[in-house]
Amino acid sequence: MLLSLVLFAVGLYGGLVMAPADYQQGDSFRIIYIHVPSAWMSLFVYMVMAISGGIGLIWHMKIAEIVARSSAPIGASFTFIALVTGAIWGKPMWGTWWVWDARLTSELILLFLYLGFIALQSAFEDRRVAARAGAILALVGIVNIPIIHYSVEWWNTLHQGPTVTKFDSPSIHLSMLIPLLIMSLAFTSYYFSVMLTRCRSEILEYEANANWVKELLTTKTASI
Amino acid sequence: MATRFTPFICILKRDLIIACRNRYELINPLLFFIMVIVLFPLAMGTDQTMLRDITAGMIWVTALLASTLSLDAMFRTDFEDGSVEQLTLSNYPLTLLVGAKILAHWLVTGVPLILVSLLVGYILSLSYAALMALFITLLLGTPILSLIGAIAVALTIGLRGGMLLSLLILPLYMPVLIFSMLAVNNANDGLSISAECYFLAGLLVLAITLAPVATAASLRIRLS
Amino acid sequence: MPRFETQQLESIRRDNILFKDISFSLDQGELLQIDGVNGSGKSTLLRICAGLTLPNSGAVLWDNTSIDSNRHHYLQNMTYVGHQNGVKDALSVHENIQVIHALSGTSDVLDCTSTLNQVGLSIDEDVLLGKLSAGQKRRVGLCRLVLNTSQLWLLDEPFTSLDIEGKALIERLIVSHCQQGGMVIFATHQAIEIEGADIRHIHLGKTNGN
Fold it and tell me: Where are the domains of chain A?
């Protein structure tokens, strides 16, 4: 947690203060220090979710089920942040909050996949059934994500010219790149720390009947 | 080897007989389809050129919604009367039996939808090429819808409401819709549609291989 | 020799321990009743034995191997009749029997009338199942036992909605199955006395409240 805070501070300072303003976009490009890492993380978290879900499904590992379950809301919020920052960025760049850009659209679909996963999980009463059902959905989703992504890309390029892509030009100056990488490290460590915290509380709830939890509770209350 | 397919054919026959005895349930999705088609001109006005431009898209979206609504029936009664348990515990692979059920479902809902779509397309004066493209994409696409839908139905059967089901499957349906509409638009412009059709056929093969397995696994999870 | 065994089964529902440390074994010809009040987990235990539900811990063994690893072999030797009959109202009696027969995997030729006679039904085979009474539907569901050649029967409340004569008939089926070397586990809260059979009991009840 501390690590991610430090990385956040360094990354934000580097990104917002040290990196030069873009010659085309001025200062508004600086939102990529939030936008890009959260977009990366949104995909990464889904992969973690699907893989750990699969592990839980095949080997009945409780920890993997819990990891998948705890990741979903975090991943959904990353996706949401990526969408919102994308829209905020889009306003000065494209003059409108929303364009049917391929990346934005597939990001939106990804958000739907996350929300579907969360909705399915909350619909079951029994946690383990919920975890296994969610795992199937996540696996189906992971097979579909590349298909969705490429179909959306294809749909998009045929519908409108590549006017949008010039904003995402891959050549990026080092002084901009380094803060970006630091920011994505910060996002990753933030994800892991939050995920582990959530896992801890999930496990405590899961095992509420187990003796060691009761012992933990009594020692904690005794020490207070 | 003939014995392997006896249960497959038996389940197929069983579901077809049941469907024929509940004729009214078969007609409902078709009525829904036609009514939604009527809603479009009511909402958008009767501008002939504009309507002709969106006819194919309208038909595809409506067919997609209609097939979503009819999905729920695939396992509902089986779940309520305990048949799913017996399918799971039979001496044959559940994947095979589930495959039979999906095929039966497609035959009784997908095929009539295709026919009605063509009829509606003809009445609304789609060009011959567009009509052919519509037919081919529906022929390749609706089985994919049934197959993907089966996974989600198996996961959500007996849970509250159909909203959850739609939330889960609509993101997964998007590639099918995109490729189909690209094909129809290409056909309208006099271009070749083979690329899109190959893509749809590929998706269909993928869905046929993976969906019954995932559906069988989902049913097992749902029962526990 | 086939043998059914459970090892330290535990089931948790909504953070409450339903039961734990359920271990028993069944040899050929043995008959076991699971009893207990409503909600004590009889059905759950039976579903775990059938491999439908996963236990929270513990294992179910058939022939000394876990039923998870040897699922196909186990399914060939086990028939489960649950709360619901698993028969379709929209099909005729004959069609229902056909489906059960096809799924049972036996190569025997189906004789529908004699199957129905074995569960004490003499009715028009072409009548829709939905038109029958609850007890008659139950009997059609119990046809599974006659059509399958499994050694192990798992029956969940087999006597519900059956009349006295039907109950006696099912009891006779159970006894003769055991005498031929089969095994039967059934769950019911009723006190059951079956003539000529020695019933073992597992009692599920309050698990000391904590």
Answer: 2-223
